[in-house]
Amino acid sequence: MGTQPQTDPEIVSVALWGGVRPRLPFPPRGALDHLVLHHTAYRSSRIGGTSVEAQSRHMRELERWHLERGFSAIGYHFVISPTGRIFRGRPLDRMGAHVQGHNRGTVGICLMGDFERERPTVAALAALAGVRTRLIPGATGLPLVGHREHSGQATLCPGRFLMEYLAETNEGRLGAALESSVGLGSSVRERRSSARSRPRTSARSTPESSPSRSDSAG
Ligand SMILES: [Zn+2]
Question: How far from chain centre, in Å, is Cα 12?
């Protein structure tokens, strides 16, 4: 179809970055409802370089923080570095530990960085798009929702610059939807608000998040 040749994103397996074997079996994720966007909330300058070694070290650091919070392994399904490397976390069909009360039916995608204070790189956003369209079966058309948009979350995650990105992405999708549905313009606002309030999964804790430790990993 004359598409541009696409460079495959570099995907780093758990074994390659040195993630732990889970202390407990992960529960099943359940039917996919939506994707959740996070940031690590640590400045990208903390990563220590652009090599796969440096970024893998940072992955192990992130995982250590999650282990210290009582998770059985890193809580996200994907972590994306500023250079666009994609690090795998939990298996896609297993439940993550990334947004308390909404882990069932969601996939957690985290960008390395503090997007309250820095802007995401083009490479990271391209990798994010690739994760959504190519690495998550059944995700086509499902919303990507910021962590802090979920009920009950006291967090700035994924940071204002990623929230801006989400708003633009959603506007783009709305624009496309409008073009293909002349006459339905009046329902756009409703559609938008229903997309935003979509995370409505009943609050229930996972074994690894109880009793009161937040499983919103940042
Ligand atoms: Zn988060």
Answer: 16
CA of 14 to the centre of ligand 1 (A): 20
CA 21–ligand 1 middle distance (angstroms): 23
C-alpha dihedral (132, 172, 124, 47), degrees to nearest 10: -110
* Choices 3.40.80.10, 3.10.350.10, 3.10.290.10, 3.40.50.620: CATH for 11-196: 3.40.80.10
* Residue 23 structure tokens: 């202390």
Q: How far is the CA of 190 from the centre of ligand 1 (A)?
A: 26
| Positions of the chain with pLDDT lower than 50, given as ranges | 1-2, 182-207, 209-215
The model's pLDDT over 40-54, given as tens digits with 9 standing for 90+, comes to 999 999 999 999 999
User: Distance from the CA of 207 to the center of ligand 1, in angstroms?
Assistant: 19
Residue in 27, 120, 129, 21 with CA at minimum distance from that of residue 78: 129
pLDDT of residue 180: 57
pLDDT for res 195: 43
Taking the centre of ligand 1 as the mean of its atom positions, its distance from the CA of residue 134, in whole angstroms, is 22
Give the Å distance between the CA of 178 and the centre of ligand 1.
Answer: 31
Nearest by Cα to 99 from 34, 45, 54: 34
pTM of the entire structure?
A: 0.80
